[in-house]
Specification:
247 residues, D-amino Acid Aminotransferase, Chain A, domain 1, globular, alpha+beta, 30% strand
Length: 247
Amino acid sequence: MARRKKVYEGKAKILYEGPEPGTLIQYFKDDAEPAPEGRAEGRGVLNNRLSEFFMSGLNSVGVPTHFIRRINMREQLVRMAEIVPLEVVVRNFAAGELSARLGIPEGTALPRPIVEYYYKDDKLGSPLVAEEHIIAFNWANQQDLDDIVALALRVNDFLSGVMMGVGIRLADFRIEVGRIWEGDFMRLIVADEISPDSCRLWDTRALDAEGGVRDPGPLADVYTELARRLGVLPSNVTHTTKPTLIN
C-alpha cells in the first residue's frame, strides 16, 4: 500500500491526503480529546461510526457537512475545507463552564439555545470570545456569523431530536465550521466530527418528574451505549468508557 501524506494530526484524529483533489481521509484515533483517561481501545472505531451517522443524517436533511462516505472502521472520506478558527458551542441546559461562570445551577433549562464562540488555540485554552473579537481579528465577517448561528441551530434541532428519540437529552455540543468554494461561491459547512467527544449527554432516566436533572452527570459508558441505542454499534467492539465533556 502506498504511503499516504499526513496533512495534520490532532489529539483524536489524523488527516491524510485524499484520493481525489479537494478530499481528505480522516482517521479516528483511540486517544481522548482532551485525554483524562488516556488511550481507550475502540474509541476511534465508535467515534467514526457515530460521526458517520450524524453527518449523514445532517446531509440528508439539507445541512451541509464535509462528510462524503466511511471508508473502513477507522477512516472516512471528507471534503477539504478551510476551517474557521472557532469552536461553536450550542447550549440547551446550564452545565460545566456556563454554570460556573454565571452561577446557574447545573441542569437548568435555558430559555433558548445559546450559541457561544471559543477561539481555537490550545496554548490559550480556547478562550471564550465575542462577535466583536471575531470580526475585528478577521476570523469571520458578520454574514459568516449569521450563517454560522443558523447552521448551528439547525444542527441542534437535528441532534436534539435524534437524541431524545433514544432517551438521551442533549445538554450542549461543540462543532467546527469550514469554508468550501464551488466556483466563485463560498459556503459554510459542518466539519471535523460529531461524536460523544464533542457532546454533553444526559440519560433521561436521570430526570425527575418535573424534568429537572437529579444527577446532571454524563451518560455512563457513553460511546458504546449511544452507538447501541442508535443501532450503529460494530459487533466486534466491546470496550466502554466515559465521555470527554465540554467545559
